[in-house]
Structure formats: structure tokens, C-alpha cells
Amino acid sequence: AEIIERDVAYIASVEVLDKWKTIRNAVGDVRIGAECLRFYGGYCDKLEGKTLCMPNGKFGYTRYEPVGVVGAITPWNFPFALSCFKIAHALGAGNSVVLKPPEQTPLSSLLLGDILIEAGVPPASGDTNLKRVTLELGGKSALIIGKSADLDKVVPLAQDGCFVNMGQTCCALTRTFVHEDVYDEFVKKSVEYARQTRAKVGDPFLENVKYGPQVDKTQFDKILDLIECGKKEGAKLECGGGRLTEKGYFVEPTVFSNVTDNMRIAKEEIFGPVQQIMKFSNIEEAIDRANDTEYGLAAAVFTNDISEAIYVAHALESGQVWINDFMPGSINTPFGGYKKSGIGREFGLDGLLPYMEIKTVLVKL
């Protein structure tokens, strides 16, 4: 962690060149990677078992032991941070790690290998055995906006939660359900905000740039194809919808209204700066439609009615639910998904458990 913090500027620059993430976001990713390593480094001497209450004068206890060798596969959207996360969990539980970085953005992960060598992490070896898995996968996260919400506050938060990292974020809030009483005003303000954001898309090395280009041509073409599909299926293109510049894989900040649940843009993970806004009449309808998906990574509810917020949070089928905020968690808050959004959890003590075996020791006294 100390080496990473020493070299933040260099690592972040590599991340920008590799991923086209903005320099501001790249610095944040590098710092949270170091934070995660330090957090789990602190767990190494605190993984304690339990003393068991046994009958007939016997004594028993449990202890945590590492599983051995961990294979970690990381995606291209947050390459350095996610590599740090995987390695921190595995090393914190006493395991060795084999890391496969993403072929689209491998450079910062390879740089992390040099950092581990400098830090004195020893080499390790592995063998074939029975595998267990934990998976953090994709999402099509729902955002429910109640009629009591303050639109001046929630419109920027909702759109930033959709466009974060150029929309290339698994837990981005990509299905926006808005109460019919405030729907038209929400759409109007969202279009105005997207047009302001358009001027902040550009060179990711510039401090005042909010969003850079998409990762590669494959992703760029996929986004434009889904935008065209949205138009053909009847969604109303309010703004954006095309290529922003002649050169580079920049996509205009895009807003669709009149989106229905059966459209591809409402069901598939676009992974781009495309906001889909749907209308609902009552909160039960919104919950049912939000849960009608094969994903369940994240969700959010924006409302000034705290009773409504808690009710919705408990009803949503999602690994984490945010109330009046977007991604407020930290290294000690469990993260993972329901349904096809994954298996298991990361972060906190819950994130360490899959990396360990629990041994029970029983003693006759």
C-alpha cells in the first residue's frame, strides 16, 4: 500500500493510457486499491476462531486456515483497483494468488506485479484441485425516484450514477423509474444536465474533463447499436445518441424517455453513457418492475419519505440498496449480487470467508 501511494501519479497515468479513464478517477481508483490492501493487511492477525460449548467435559474450537491457491480474473473497467481488491482478499486470508488481468487493459495489473515483488511478496505455486468460486458479475440496476424527491438534487445524482466511468460500471443505475407526478419535469431536467455534461467529455488527462472515451471499438460499436435499437423499438431519444467526435471512441451523453420494460435497452447491460427513464404510478408497481430482471447487483431509491425508502430497500432483490446516494460504501461494507449478478460477497469480513477453510478441533479432556 505504501509503494502504491508513493507512485500514485505514475500508476494513474498508466491507467489512463490503458483504459482512457479520466486522470481524476484513475487517481481515486489507485488510492482505493491501496486502501483495500491496507485494510486486509490489518486483518492478518485478527482472524480468530471460536471456542465451542461442548457436552460431557469435552473441549472444542474452530480456526480459520487459508484455502491455498486463489485464481483471480479481473475485468477491464476498473483494472488496477479490482486487481488490488482480489489480491488483498487472498493475501489477507493467507493464500497465494494467480492473477489473470484483462486483455483489453493489462498494463496497470502487470505494474501491480512489480509492486508486489518490490514489497517482498514471495513467489508461490499451485496445483489442480476441486474449485470453489466467488463471482461479481454484471447488473442492470434499478433506481426508483419517488414523487417526494427533490429533483434539483436527484437529477444530477441519478445521471452521474448511470454515466459513471463512461457508463462502464457493473452497478451503474441504468434503469431509472420515476413517479408519474414528476416524470415530465425529471426528463426535462435530465436532458438539460446531459447537455451540460456533453461539454465535459474529452481528453482524460485534463482535470476539468468528466468523462473520457469508451474502452475500445468493440464496446463503442455495441453502445451505438443498442442506441439504434432503442430508437427502433419506440423509445424517445431526448438527446445525444451518436458519436461525439470524428476521432476517438467518444459517445454523446444520451437520454431516452418513454422506455418500456421489454425493450433491449431496458433489459441488457449497455455499459455506456445511456440513461433510460421509465414511468410508474405506485410504489408496488415500481418494486415489481425493478425486480423483474435476471440481475440483482445494486439498486437505489431516492425519496424524502424515509418510511417509503426503508420499505423499498427491503423489497428490492439486490445485494446492496442505496438510499438517496450512489455507491456510498467503503472497504468494510459487503458487496455482491443476487441472481445472475454473482456468487458470494467481497469486502469486510464477509469478503474474506470464501478464501478460508474453517477447521473444527475437538479434544477429549
Keywords:
alpha/beta, 37% helix, 18% strand
Description:
The protein is of the alpha/beta class. Helices cover 37% and strands 18% of the residues. The protein contains twelve helices and 14 strands. It has helices at 2-6, 8-19, 23-41, 79-92, 107-119, 151-163, 183-198, 217-232, 264-267, 283-291, 306-315, 348-352, and strands spanning 51-52, 59-66, 69-73, 96-100, 135-136, 141-145, 173-179, 236-239, 254-257, 274-280, 299-302, 321-323, 342-343, 356-363. The strands form four sheets. It has a seven-stranded mixed sheet with strand order 8-9-10-7-6-11-12, with helices on both faces. A three-stranded antiparallel sheet has the order 1-2-14, with no helix packed on it. A two-stranded parallel sheet has the order 3-4. Strand 1 and strand 2 form a beta hairpin. Helix 6 crosses helix 7. The longest helix is centred in the N-terminal third of the chain and has 19 residues, at 23-41.
- Strand count, sense and closure of the main sheet? 7 strands, mixed
The separation of the N and C termini measures 45 Å
* Average pLDDT: 94
The best one-word shape is globular
Oligomer: single chain
Over all CA atoms, what is the radius of gyration?
23 Å
Number of helices: 12
Order of helices and strands: HHHEEEHEHEEHEHHEEHEHEHEEHE
- Helix percent reads 25-40%
Going across the major beta sheet, what is the strand order? 8-9-10-7-6-11-12
**Based on helices, strands and strand pairing, what is the structural class?**
alpha/beta
Taking pLDDT < 50 over at least 5 consecutive residues as the criterion, the unreliable ranges are none
The percentage of residues in β strands lies in 15-25%
Total strands: 14
